[in-house]
Amino acid sequence: MIDPHGPAWSAEIDRIGALLHAGENPTLFPYHFLQVVLPRLGGRIVWLDAGAAPLGVGFLFPRGLKDAANANGAAQPAYLHEYTLRYHPLGQPPPPDQIQQ
Questions:
Q1: φ, ψ at 62 (rounded to 5°)
Q2: pLDDT at 84
Q3: Which of 28, 39, 67, 97 is the most exposed place for a label (fewest CB within 10 A)?
Q4: Residue 66 lies in a domain
Q5: What is the pLDDT of residues 19-33, one digit of tens each?
Q6: What's the number of domains the chain is made of?
């Protein structure tokens, strides 16, 4: 997961844009949205890989909070963040037998 408050945030978005052909990719969100708005919404960006081979980039958009206290019997409320994943592959996926769970 890329830290939106870290010094490499903008550089990582530049790298993602280059890998996903941002200027020619109508499914990719604009640079300014990814750089500024996504972190303010509570969204995240994750690299998805199989070992050392990158598979793609995932953009996580917050959907809300779920009360996990009822599920685990805790007396105090415990909230889990729920996200919607928007996945952008980097080329062809590897064969299924090479993907680890």
A1: -65, 135
A2: 93
A3: 97
A4: yes
A5: 999 989 999 999 999
A6: 1
SS (H, E, C) the chain: CECCCCCCHHHHHHHHHHHCCHHHCCCCCCHHHHHHHHHHHCCEEEEEEECCEEEEEEEEEEEEEEECHHHHCCCCCCEEEEEEEEEEECCCCCCHHHCCC
* The pair of three-digit structure tokens given for residue 47, joined into one six-digit string: 């690299």
- Write out the residue range of the structural domain in which residue 83 sits: 9-92
With beta carbons less than 8 A apart as the criterion, state whether 67 and 77 touch: yes
Alpha-carbon span 33 to 90, nearest angstrom: 21
The answer as to whether 31 is a domain residue is yes
What's the CA gap between 42 and 83, in Å, rounded? Answer: 10
- Split at pLDDT 50, 70, 90, the class of 81 is confident
